[in-house]
Amino acid sequence: MSNVSTDTFNVPELYLLASAFGGNVLFGLPEKQIYQLKGEEVFEQAHNRLIEKGILNGEGKITKSGAIIIQALEYYYQSEKYVRINNLMFGFPSDNEDELVMMVETEEQALYKLFVISKAIVLQLLSEKFPMITREPEEKEKNFLKQELTNKERRETEQLEPGDSMVNLELFHLNEKHREASNPAYYQQWLVFPKEEKLIMVDTVQRKYYHASQYWFLKVLFDEMEFPYKEAK
Asked: Which InterPro entries match (predicted)?
C-alpha cells in the first residue's frame, strides 16, 4: 500500500500541475527556476508521485480528481489579490464571490494542501484557529478605531514575545501598478496580538504600533477577505 499522501503536494508537483494551464509562477511558493536548476530528475519524481496519488493515470494523462485539483490551482493562479494569514494563503476566484481558494502551508516552503472553500466555512475556520477574531472588546474600544502607541508603550511592546497568539496578516494587491512594499495599496503586513487587555496591531512596513479596537481589526480582516459583515455574529 502506498504511503504517499494524496492531498498534499510539494512545490515541483504543484508546478507540474500548473503547467496544464501555462502557469509558471505560483504566489507564495519558491520560484520554479530553483527546481529547474536541480535537473530533470526533480520533476520526473514529481510526475511519478502524481501518478501514485491518482492525479495522473499510468499514461501521464490527467484523471478526474486531477482535473479538480488543477482547476483549484488555476483559480488560485488567476487571483488578482492574495491574503496570507500565518500559514494560510487565500486566492480570490474572479467568477465566484462566495468561495476562496485556500492553500495551506503544512511544511515551510515544502508541502501544501489546496482547497476551494466557501467564505462562511473560512470564517468559521479562522475564528476557531485564531481566538482573537472572537475576542470581546473592551468598553472603551467603542470610542476609537486605532491609537498610535507612545514611545514608552512601543518600547514595552517590542520586548513582548507573543508566541502562538500572534496573527501575521499580509495583504497583496497584484493589480496595483506600483508594486513596491512602500505602497500600502499594493502591500501591507500587520502583526496582531494581545497585550494584557489591549489589542496591538503593528504596521511592519510603516513601522507604526497601534492600540487597535476590535472593530478596526475585524474591518481590516473582513474587507480584505471580502466577508459579508452579517456573518460576524
From this structure: EsaE
